[in-house]
Amino acid sequence: MTSDEKGLRSALAAEHAAIYAYGRLGVLLDPEGKGEAQAAEAVHKARRDALVVRLDELKASPEPAQAGYVLPFPVSERDSALKLAVHVEDGVSATWRDAIAASEGEDRKAALNAYMEAAVRATRWRRMAGLTPLTSAYPGKKG
Amino acid sequence: MFQGHTGSRRDMLRRVISIAAVTPVLAACDLLNREPLPPPPPDPLTPLHAATVALAARYDAAIAASPQLAATLTPLRDTHLTHAKALAAVMRPAPPSGSPEPAPSAQTGTVRQAEQAGHQEAVEACLTAPPYRAVLLAEIAAARACHLEVLPRD
Fold first, then answer.
1. With a cut of 0.95, is the ipTM above it?
2. Topology annotation, domain A3-129
3. Could B143 and A112 be called an inter-chain contact, meaning their C-beta atoms sit closer than 8 Å?
């Protein structure tokens, strides 16, 4: 498997997990947050579908979603739901960031857009959650 | 003193002869008439680096003009300075020290417009960069996209 394919497969796994998380957290938010969560979930589903098509083209057998995911912490009300949304988008942006170096052409463009959009959503959720700092010099970079 | 002078004349003459004897050899080796090497071409990141420094300066001006926005603008300004340093660290040759010419994109309009232009520049740089530079340029593009999320709307 090429490193481009590996990056795309990791991105697909992150998108599956994000879709699951939004299904759990969206219902706990106020109307504004719910709207954001629905829009975000739709974007993650579109990315997932595009990734499945691309991995099929590359004959790199896309993995289906798992039946369930273990959440990183209990999510039972608005604050923890917002925290989960931040956690999800940070994770998705980190995964797409990792896919950039090995990609080129249209794959790089798609990875860059997905990375930037996830970083922006993480910022938006931080603002709604009242978390600071809102931004960082290297979004999605661990450590 | 006069004696010393006279005494050294023969030495001087000998030295001139020896230089004359050696010169054709050196010339043949191409040691003396080689043109100085042309300066290396500037790094392809030069415009982005200059624009990044200018963008930070644009924030400085905005903070001075609107101190009530300092809490929002200062961390963003600091991020641009961090990026300018990170770009300079990978550029070969390193960018000239001192303030580069302000980039046109950062000279006019609001901070938000300057940030938007800077974001577009970083995106384009990322899409054409070799793999070893693509991640840094993507990070810069993503950070600028996040700045647009927190900047006040014009």
1. yes
2. Ferritin (1.20.1260)
3. no
